């Protein structure tokens, strides 16, 4: 579903939101192309939209790095001759289907992909790693009991959600084995339409409340989350003196409130990388409640631009390096 452009063009420059819409449009076009390829029987090996995929060195960037900006990717390093691998593999595949899209399992045959094996510094197999927002972390090595694996996966999924705002899209049981089909356009939601109307009319307070009403009944509504992030952003920058905000931010680099205001202005002015870089640097310099406040604001700005945008992917990686 495409995001709505923020209105009130007389108040702010909407270049950043336009860029977000273009990025999401490209992502939707890519999904449509994959669906068309699947219908014609020429889907890429491993199934780009499946929960369990076989990955080689050529597909590492698209299947693991890029996808890790949208969903945690668990990598199973294995080999045909490895008996513990044969014990662990089916357990991981079972859990991938059971978790239904909260993570994706990527299987890497180390005999065929020595470069990946060495890149991750794997000491022995089976070895299981995770990639979140482009950042790799080891999970465990050896054929662990299923209950312990569940605990590790639960911690991984929660860390991805809490630290980076990354949540995999739910998949109905068995759906990943079916050829993708174009979904019919859902009926218009009156509550969501009212929220959009308030935003378009410049009633920011009304729009914020309306989007929150939608989310109270449907917490996973992506369009409502985007609309809320846009309305709150516009509300924060309304009436600000841009010159004074930037002077305050330059004079007081450790003032969290000043940096948050400057980042908001950067974003609505189209300076997306500047906004993200400012907040990542502020996270680096802060601790405790201040750090958490800045991290959450950064996740809100990610919502405005869109998770598929390469600038968001890069910023998530930078945030991960600061936090870990």
Automatic annotation (TrEMBL):
Highest taxon of source: Bacteria
Alphabetical list of SUPFAM superfamilies matching this protein: Thioredoxin-like
The protein's name in its UniProt record: Tetratricopeptide repeat protein
Upper classification of the organism: Bacteria, Bacillati, Actinomycetota, Actinomycetes, Kitasatosporales
InterPro entries: Thioredoxin-like_sf, Thioredoxin_CS, Thioredoxin_domain, TPR-like_helical_dom_sf
Region (Disordered): 25-48
Cross-referenced PROSITE patterns: THIOREDOXIN_1, THIOREDOXIN_2
Domain Thioredoxin: 38-158
GO biological-process terms attached to the record: cell redox homeostasis; response to stress
Listed Pfam families: Thioredoxin, TPR_19, TPR_20
């Amino acid at each position: 579903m495409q995001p709505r452009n923020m209105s009130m063009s007389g108040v702010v420059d909407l270049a950043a939101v336009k860029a977000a819409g273009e990025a999401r449009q490209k992502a939707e076009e890519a999904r449509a192309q994959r669906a068309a390829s699947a219908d014609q029987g020429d889907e890429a090996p491993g199934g780009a939209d499946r929960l369990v995929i076989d990955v080689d060195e050529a597909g590492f960037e698209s299947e693991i790095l890029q996808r890790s900006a949208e969903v945690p990717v668990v990598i199973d390093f294995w080999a045909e001759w490895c008996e513990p691998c044969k014990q662990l593999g089916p357990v991981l595949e079972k859990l991938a289907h059971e978790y239904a899209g909260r993570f994706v399992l990527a299987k890497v045959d180390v005999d065929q992909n020595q470069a990946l094996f060495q890149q991750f510094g794997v000491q022995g197999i089976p070895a299981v790693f995770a990639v979140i927002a482009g950042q790799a972390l080891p999970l465990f090595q050896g054929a662990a009991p299923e209950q312990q694996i569940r605990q590790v996966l639960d911690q991984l999924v929660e860390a991805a959600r809490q630290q980076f705002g990354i949540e995999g899209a739910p998949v109905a049981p068995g759906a990943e084995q079916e050829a993708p089909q174009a979904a019919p356009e859902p009926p218009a939601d009156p509550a969501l339409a009212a929220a959009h109307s308030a935003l378009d009319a410049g009633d920011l307070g009304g729009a914020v409340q309306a989007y929150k009403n939608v989310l109270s009944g449907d917490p996973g509504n992506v369009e409502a989350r985007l609309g809320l992030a846009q309305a709150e952003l516009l509300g924060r920058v309304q009436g600000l003196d841009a010159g004074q905000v930037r002077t305050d931010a330059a004079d007081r680099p450790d003032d969290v409130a000043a940096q948050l205001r400057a980042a908001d202005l950067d974003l609505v002015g189209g300076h997306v990388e500047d906004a993200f870089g400012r907040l990542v640097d502020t996270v680096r310099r802060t601790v405790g409640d201040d750090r958490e406040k800045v991290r959450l604001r950064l996740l809100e700005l990610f919502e405005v631009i869109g998770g598929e945008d390469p600038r968001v992917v890069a910023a998530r990686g930078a945030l991960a390096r600061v936090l870990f």
